[in-house]
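In response to the reviewer comment on reproducibility (Comment 2.3), we provide here a single inverse folding case reported in full, input and output, so that an independent group could reproduce the run without further information from us. The structure tokens appear first.
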């Protein structure tokens, strides 16, 4: 992995002059960011796989957006890009290596002419070279599939060192999970400290422009009704895939055109046979559960026709308490037409994925 980092660094430096000559690359940046991270032991079963500190590498191609669209103005012309991530995962023989391709958006929090401080959110596809049962790999109880969803959060500081070079540092968190489509799916969480450099062209001012008051929506209140379904694999063995679903009612207050918040009422259906590990590595069914009503708080961030949905809630009633009463849900909703909504979300319990949901909704 060290050789990979050096090759990437050489590649970025070698194309700096070409970037300066191409108009297409105006307002663009190419970042090379080595990371020092480790696998966080978010549950007892992960502890045998965690502990060692290792290097990660990422190369991010990005562009500072500009234009007259309202959402760009209200988010101070954020930086959008695509990130290529690589990690040896500490050369763990059971985990192998991890790779990811993640589209991302970097929102500016503060800044001056030479300094940019922001929060970058990325989500995409991850690939793990080793997973559970690969070549008899029964020690990897973190992930049961090669292909996974990858999510990256990065609080980043950029300092302009020259017209074409930035120094970059920050704190990042990366998560790999398949959304319980294939078990086991405890997930891999990697907190990391980042230090790198960026090559830029025509990006010479990071000063955050002051904006007037963000206008409000025409309607103060909004209701969204969403129906969704999901798939999950409850065990490591060849058991049948089970199904889940939900009907969700969002009762929202439109704070302004950028954000809204409110309360949510859910009815979850889950026909999974819940599994637990017993001595000798065997997995046996314990019990089934089906209907679980729940209440939660929600916060929505609007980006053009997209909305990032964040929920934290609790079941009102459940027959199965092993995963607790508290759950989280993060999702993405897209306004297809005036009232029709497409929904993609992930429900979890304390960072352990429950299932991925695909759905359709209606905005009132």
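Designed residues, in position order:
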């Amino acid at each position: 992995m060290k050789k990979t980092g050096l090759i990437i660094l050489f590649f970025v430096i070698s194309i700096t002059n070409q970037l300066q000559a191409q108009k297409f690359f105006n307002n663009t940046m190419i970042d090379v960011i080595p990371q020092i991270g480790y696998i966080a032991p978010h549950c007892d079963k992960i502890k045998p796989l965690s502990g060692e500190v290792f290097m990660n590498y990422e190369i991010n191609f990005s562009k500072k957006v500009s234009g007259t669209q309202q959402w760009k103005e209200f988010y101070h012309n954020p930086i959008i890009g695509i990130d290529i991530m690589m990690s040896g995962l500490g050369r763990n023989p059971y985990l192998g290596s991890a790779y990811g391709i993640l589209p991302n958006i970097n929102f500016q929090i503060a800044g001056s002419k030479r300094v940019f401080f922001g929060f970058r959110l990325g989500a995409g596809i991850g690939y793990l070279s080793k997973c559970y049962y690969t070549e008899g790999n029964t020690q990897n109880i973190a992930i049961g599939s090669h292909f996974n969803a990858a999510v990256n959060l990065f609080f980043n500081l950029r300092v302009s060192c020259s017209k074409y070079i930035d120094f970059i540092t920050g704190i990042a968190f990366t998560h790999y999970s398949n959304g319980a489509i294939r078990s086991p799916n405890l997930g891999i969480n990697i907190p990391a400290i980042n230090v790198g450099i960026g090559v830029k062209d025509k990006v010479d001012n990071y000063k955050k422009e002051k904006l007037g008051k963000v206008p409000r929506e025409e309607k103060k209140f909004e209701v969204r009704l969403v129906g969704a379904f999901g798939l999950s694999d409850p065990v490591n063995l060849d058991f049948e895939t089970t199904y889940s679903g939900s009907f969700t009612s969002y009762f929202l207050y439109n704070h302004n055109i950028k954000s809204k918040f409110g309360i949510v009422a859910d009815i979850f259906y889950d026909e999974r046979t819940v599994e637990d590990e017993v001595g000798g590595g065997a997995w046996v069914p314990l019990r089934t559960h089906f209907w679980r009503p729940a209440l939660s708080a929600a916060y929505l961030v609007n980006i053009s026709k997209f909305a990032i949905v964040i929920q934290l809630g609790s079941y009102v009633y459940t027959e199965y308490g092993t995963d607790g009463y508290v759950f989280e849900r993060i999702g993405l909703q897209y306004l297809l037409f005036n009232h029709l909504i497409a929904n993609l979300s992930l429900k979890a319990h304390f960072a352990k994925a429950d299932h991925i949901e695909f759905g359709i909704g209606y905005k009132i």
